[in-house]
Design a protein that fits this description.
By secondary structure, this protein is mainly alpha-helical. It contains 15 helices and 8 strands. Helix 6 crosses helix 7, helix 6 crosses helix 8 and helix 8 packs antiparallel against helix 9.
Length: 286
Amino acid sequence: FFFFFFFFFKQKTAYEISACLVGSEMCIRDRYMYTYLNQVYGLKNLIIEAAGGIIQGIKKHSVSDSDVALFGKILKNECDEDFRFVFAEIKAAMGSILKEKLKVKHKSKTETELNKMVKELQQGEIAEKYWSAVIAKMYNEEHSLVLSKRIKEKIEEDRKSARVGNKKVTREELSLIQSKQGNKIQYSDLQKIVLDFQLATHESYLKKFTALFKQIDARREGVLKEEEFRELISRMQVQATEKDVQRFLQRVDPYNNQKITYSQCLALFSSVTPYINIGNGKGGNS
């Protein structure tokens, strides 16, 4: 599962992946997963077994791994492929904010020393003064409050399950642990809370578009033909002339392969804001 996940998800672009697998076709898709497996295994029973393992792997690991959860959404056409770059930007931003916070406190430290300190924090627990600074820098007040609440809930959940070795702690021991720990959280848990929040927010924004795309994709192939693409434009009430539509088609299907993907549609519509508001699922400026 993780080999497949790495191969399909960690590449720079879908086109780089597709060049390895199925020529010019986009392939981060449920149907192209089977295309890839067919090339690897050939035999139908092995393909089914491998596909089942991948699906089970996504179900199992998406609970604890935000990247896997995103991968599953991409496969199901519930999130665009490019959103993985947003994940990468968030991870980088969190590290940069930590570094700036440490730089203020440790003015005499070199860049190498600061980078080492950031890495140590990212590999262990992070105190409230640091995680609260990260949240406040990255989000508005409303979202910061939501995230702070979730972080504190996670901290409380970890405290309740606290153990000393294999032995449950007493109330007195738990109180002592809490007083020593403060509102600390594992950095990996902090990052997961932030990424999960970002993914849920994005998925909610795309909800109407996703539902409409799936309605039009009656064959459930994850791709649209030109006629279906035109229907999508019409049903989203995009104010576009025939010349505009031809220009759109040149961008999403230049070689007339009749395989226009969910992510291609999103990338297109997101870039033509005078025509459409994806979140509302209808044309016009918001």
